[in-house]
Amino acid sequence: MSLLAIDDLAIGAGELSLVDGVSLSVEPGEVVALVGESGSGKSLTALSIMGLLADGLQRRRGSIHFDGADLTQLDDEQLRSLRGSELAMIFQEPVSSLNPLAPVGAQVAESLIVHGRASVDGANREAVEMLRRVGIPEPERRARQLPTELSGGMCQRVMIAAALISRPRLLIADEPTTALDVTIQAQILALMSELAEEANTAILLITHDMGVVAELADQVCVMYGGRVVEQAPVEALFAAPRHPYTSMLLKTIPRLDEEPKQELFAIKGNVPSPHDWPAGCRFRTRCDRAMEQCAERPFMSGQVHRVACHHALGGDL
Amino acid sequence: MSPLLQINDLKVHFPVRTGRFGGNQSVVKAVDGVSISIDENETVAIVGESGCGKSTMGNAVLGLARVTKGRIEFQGKDLATLDATGRRHVWRDLQVVFQDPVSALNPRRTIAESIAEPLQIHGYERAQIKARVDELMGLVGLNPDQRDRRPGALSGGQRQRVVIARALALSPKLIICDEPVSALDVSIQSQILNLLMRLQRELGLSYLFIAHDLSVVRHIADRVAVMYLGMVVEEGPAATVFANPVHPYTEALLSAIPLPDPSLRHSRKRIVLEGDLPSPMKPPAGCPFVTRCPVVEPACGDARPPLEEISPMHFVRCRVRAPSPVVTKI
User: Fold this and answer.
1) pLDDT for B67-99, tens place per residue?
2) How many CB atoms lie within 10 A of CB A111?
3) Is B272 near chain A, with CB under 8 Å?
4) Residue B187 and residue A271: Cβ atoms within 8 Å?
5) Which of A84, A109, A171, B126 sits between 20 and 30 A of B160, alpha carbons compared?
């Protein structure tokens, strides 16, 4: 049984449909990347797992099973007991996600205390240990400091420590390194994969950076316009992308082995806002393979490598 | 021929108050002795992580940060000594494109009004302005039908095109591009980079390109300067620096780029630096990189190493990798 199974999830706001029929699963210990550009619905999908959709956004249909239980059927109390223990999340902006008025050690210890897993003293000791594990120098002293006294990279380590201290079975990481510098990003990615492997924690990694995906993920789900358009093991996705969007997205990244100053491959048009999504395939207005049939919605097909496209690259598999 | 922009030993130091009641004065050396030049039709990239001083340097050229010491010459004129008229002339030839097109545009103005603004300030006539705005919109790939739309109705990529059109309005020679694509979606970044490269070919522009994304910089730059804690630690032709980085910081920076190729995940040699950037208020003595350097030697903390030319036009500030030639007094 999958650790997390999302089936046909749809999220909307008023008249607008923002996430439309997303299905994906995460196995224990697996790193699944959810990739997409702004407005693709990747962050909404993640927030709905945590039951943290903002006011005005509603889940319209679909189920989210975690460890066999449907999260959408749980009440607030039951969800709260899962959050911070079995399920944890880290966000893009570590500085604004931490409480500026509480010492970081106490923030790391909090989930243990709230969930009654340790005494205050015990939790504080574990927090210092966890801060040491995520590579914070002088953890005893740092634990007493406020987030404003720490750098951005250190705050992200604190967030990771707070998320992992209760040994969650699923960590949702929403753009965990986007706000960080590249040398710090390398540290954080290495740390996440090491800690996850050690505790067999599964990770749902939300990102727009194909480099980060290639670095960390086992499975990849590519989203466009509120839908999953391709799903595959990481090697297969990069070696032979089947959806024209995935293929074009990979081609637009300037590579370190290509001739500089040449024109880069570019996808035409703009990332459409949900108001302007076309009927049928939502990528068809930017796709160079689009044809008449694309006005009808393509559904996901395939077994291991799944794609939603009427004329996927590589033909029918 | 003298370069278009010549920066000589630039220092930008900010006084800051620290301590609980702001009683202690100290100084942030945001830029601490940087020399860089840009020729016509050339792209020079400044790379480095947050806090290295790259944006402050751009701001100093634009007159947005007070120069503590050093000279900035544009077209042979010292910017510090210009009067108001002189400065107005310079602003025709020197423009800027910032990272965030949302905050760079007035949300209440139409696109045409935003693009027309520099033309109005410089006294163009109405009919001229309309024709020039249409021309500029075409140049950056905007449909002139969109002239009366407001920024809120545009996507991020389109807004950045508006900002670029406005920067081009007075036909500048040099555009300072401060992270021009980092706020844009991945599928849009390459469109904007292509636009910048095409404009350079067509109009003979020069760019001072400030960025943290090394794959982008490698693609667009002729020369690159790597900054760390307010200093240039390596500078050279982009092809040389990327193929053959010599400073241990440049090496680590390049090895940290996540490559979009999962098959390299295990084979790739990666240098993961320990620790964070030191506070620019308390930079280490000697070499700025001494606290995180994987090849550090005890003597590195003694004195700041000079920028040595190790091959033609390739400069490195490292006493281990680029030792100074020993000068013997006779």
Assistant:
1) 999 999 999 999 988 888 888 888 899 999 998
2) 22
3) yes
4) yes
5) B126
Which residue blocks in chain A are alpha helix, DSSP H? Answer: 42-50, 76-82, 94-97, 104-114, 120-133, 139-143, 152-164, 182-199, 210-216, 234-239, 244-252
User: Residue A25 above 70 pLDDT?
Assistant: yes
Q: Quick one: pLDDT at residue B181? A: 92
Q: Which residue of B has its CA nearest to A136?
A: B275
**B161 vs B156: CA distance, rounded Å:** 9
Q: What pLDDT score was predicted for residue A48?
A: 94
If you write DSSP's letter for every residue of A169-183 in order, what string do you get?
Answer: SEEEEESTTTTS-HH
| Chain B residues within an 8 Å CB radius of A248 | 187
CA atoms within 13 A on the CB side of A169: 10
Alpha helices in chain B (DSSP H): 54-61, 84-93, 101-104, 111-121, 126-139, 156-168, 186-203, 214-220, 238-243, 248-255
C-alpha span between B138 and B240 (Å, rounded): 36
| Min Cα separation A232/chain B (Å) | 13
How many Å apart are CA B164 and CA A218, to the nearest integer? 40
Taken in order of first residue, the domains within chain B and their CATH numbers are 5-316 (3.40.50.300)
Task: Please answer whether residues A205 and A33 qualify as being in contact, where contact means their C-beta atoms are separated by less than 8 angstroms.
Answer: yes
Task: Kindly report, residue by residue over B232-259, the tens digit of the pLDDT.
Answer: 999 999 999 999 999 999 999 999 888 8
pLDDT of residue B145 exceeding 60, the answer is: yes
Dist. CA A267–CA A275, nearest whole Å: 20
Q: Hey, are the CB atoms on A261 and B194 less than 8 Å from each other?
A: no
Which residues 142-201 on chain B approach chain A with CB closer than 8 angstroms? 155-158, 185-191, 193-194, 197-198
Is A184 close to B259, i.e. CB distance below 8 A?
no
Looking at residue B289, what is its pLDDT? 95
Select the residue of B187, B190, B276 nearest A153 (Cβ to Cβ): B276
Of A238, A255, A270, the CB nearest to B262: A238
Q: How many Å separate Cα A161 from the centre of its chain?
A: 18
Q: Does ipTM come in above 0.90?
A: no
Contacts of B158 in chain A (CB under 8 A): 270
- At residue B292 the predicted structure's pLDDT band, cuts being 50, 70 and 90, is very high
